[in-house]
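Input chain follows. Return structure tokens only.
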Amino acid sequence: MPEGDTLFRTAAGLRPHLVGRTVGAASARQPGPQADRIVGATVTGVEAQGKNLLIRFDNGLEVRTHLGMHGSWHRYRPGEPWRRPPARARLVIEVPGAVAVCFDAPTVELFEQRAEALHPNLRRLGPDLLVDPFDLDEALRRLRDASRPPTIGEALLDQRALAGIGNEVRNQSLWEARVSPFLPVEAVDDATLRSLVERSMAILREGARTGRRRSDIHGRSGRPCPRCRTPIRSEAYGGDLPRIAYWCPSCQPDPREDVPTGA
């Protein structure tokens, strides 16, 4: 799944080709937004908020996409062949000199910019790890909120606590800090919780800057831990939308069972 750094780079890549240009044509797969409403409007902004990409227009409208597991934005020159089948395009925006295509995104919507502050997904986002100034104290407060998921592995993915972390960054930051994803949030001390947020921020900002993201254990179930050589484990968990947690049973002892604690 694209994480905050991917969306940050996507916005940065689209911005110089869209902002200040007038939409000559637009189409969306149905059911979907009425893309003809942005034809003739000028793009005024392209930005990422957590895992959301927002495109704003001078007629007061705004497009929001959430890429889910498999979505992506591509930018082409007019007439250039697309790298994915047209049937997978959810939204196409044509401006002079460029064609922006959103493929496979589960969420594509058009709404009034003035309603952004009331949007049920955007208004609940926690502090964005890629935006300065980042409110670390507010992020920590939200992670401690009793209404959040009970384990630290679930809480770090809760976009209402802090925005931008996905599964890969979650797994990496927990491994670096030697914290089990199954540890209850209440059992994580303040210094460790702060370290987890700061590690996640560093990973995302490195990814946004370089296009490369540190990933030592994600997707490596059964392979040796880079630190202690114990085989990495994996398990899908986390409520209605389970994600696969990867962890080292030696470096990150599972509180649900007795495992070796040495590394």
